[in-house]
User: Fold this.
Amino acid sequence: MLMNVRAALESHAKECPEKPKVILLNPGNHAILGWDEVFGLPVLPDERAKPMRARLVCGTGRAGYCEEGRVVWDEAGKAYVFVPAEET
Assistant:
């Protein structure tokens, strides 16, 4: 899996001028590997990542999730956790 992540990073570097902000892994792979960080980038579970593949996020918007809620990146490059208000 580490080789898949490195390949994704190398491919991204050739195709995009922006540096990735986060690595997304399929939730099952994320649970098995237990990675919080790889190559200096945070690693988060996200259902959009295919099993045994890594997905990189370099722009704004939704980028995985953690125990507290969905992780979102803003235009300033900051990550924050979005927790929707509970409906009562």
